[in-house]
Amino acid sequence: MADSNSSRISFTLPSSLDSVNKIELTAEQVAQRAGFDEDTIPHVAMAVREAAVNAVLHGNSYDTNKIIKASFETTSDSLIIRISDQGPGLDPDKIPDPLAPENILRGSGRGIFLIKAFMDEVNFRQLHPGTELTLIKHRTPAQPGT
Amino acid sequence: MSMKVQTRQVDGVTILDLSGRITLGEGSVTIRDAVRDVLAKGQKKILLNLGDISYIDSSGIGELVSAFTTVKNSGGELKLLNLTKKVHDLLQITKLYTVFDIKDDEATAISAFTK
After folding, report:
1. What structural domains does chain B harbor?
2. pTM to 2 decimals?
3. Cβ–Cβ contact B52 with A under 8 A
4. What is A7-138's CATH number?
């Protein structure tokens, strides 16, 4: 049910770094409007940026024929962001642990880890083709929303 | 804002003063090229000054790690200087804080390089 604290924005964008930057900026603005504090807003923006980079780079491989979708939904108790691509699919169980000693000096592979570190919930859904990531950050009673 | 690099020499140490964002497609390649150029000149003591880095993402972190291993594999040393709170926190979360040699003071950092 919609209420005064609820809103939803969605985009369909090409597979480009400009799209990543637009999604990141939107995340920052939405998190700010939702009343998150100044420490949390950049964390949400970074998690969303990492999800968008995954979609463009690892999902769609910069394929200009493929699009990414992003939606931002603010409810009375959460900020819910969904990012999807049209790539071959991502199995989260097969992502190496970047904190493991054998991986600590790898030059990549920290994106999903950071998303999980900064969000309260992260869910993966296979779209056949593609992957949808749902990122959730819970609002606290101190965040009235606007 | 894209990333900028300025290079200077102090007591045999090459200091790269970085400013802006280190992200995929922005600063990542710039760092890689800058470190490669320094190594190509035979300068193997490199101090990355991150004091004016406003933002870094996982690609940027990966690029710092790659720079560290590239310099180390070339027989050199790479240290980090002046981390902002954001970068500091990210290196803590990713457990890289203990991998890098991190200094808060330029003079201390320079004297910490092998003579």
Report:
1. 4-110 (3.30.750.24)
2. 0.91
3. no
4. 3.30.565.10
